[in-house]
Amino acid sequence: MSTTPKVLFVCVHNAGRSQMAAGFLSALAGDRIEVRSAGSAPAGQVNPAAVEAMAEVGIDISAENPKVLTVDAVLASDVVITMGCGDTCPVFPGKSYRDWVLDDPAGQGIDAVRPIRDQIKVKVEALIAELTSQTAAH
After folding, report:
1. For helices 110-137 and 48-56, what crossing angle results, to 10°?
2. Which end of the chain is more exposed for a tag (fewer CB within 10 A), N or C?
3. Helix, strand, or coil here: 79?
């Protein structure tokens, strides 16, 4: 792993869970961890309820756009975190893969998205602790 760990969040539409996770990781880790997100079948825009839920905790993801998952994005990452994309995520040796089981916020209102956002924050905080302790150990 390089001195700056590189994390890729992947979900199907890259419009909800992966965007919220990337927003939290960028906000909480700063430049200690490089963040990317992508989707196997990207939506046309980020889920408005996800944008609203993140704004409630002071993180603006409104300028983000769903991006297509590429082999290059996976190869450039140290840790790949999938969120419901199943077998559509390419797997390469030497990469660390995690699957975060989270409800899909697609088509959900803000009241349903808030608990998903809060689960993501807990997982991101644990990821930051793990990756920054690994970096410090090298």
Report:
1. 70
2. C
3. strand
Q: Give the residue among 124, 102, 106, 114 at the shortest CA–CA distance from 46.
A: 106
35-89: pLDDT as tens digits: 999 998 999 999 999 999 999 999 999 999 999 999 999 999 999 999 976 666 6
pLDDT at 130: 94
Alpha helices by DSSP H, listed for 30-109, are 48-56, 71-75
Element (H, E) at 134: helix 110-137
State if pTM tops 0.90.
Answer: yes
SS3 category, 48: helix
Report the alpha-carbon distance of residue 39 to residue 78 in Å, rounded. 17
CB 61 within 8 A of CB 50: yes
Query: What are the residue numbers of the active site?
Result: 11, 85, 89
Residue for token pair 């997100």? 37
49 with 17: CB under 8 angstroms?
A: no
Q: How confident is the model at residue 137 (pLDDT cuts 50, 70, 90)?
A: low
Cα Rg of the chain, angstroms: 14
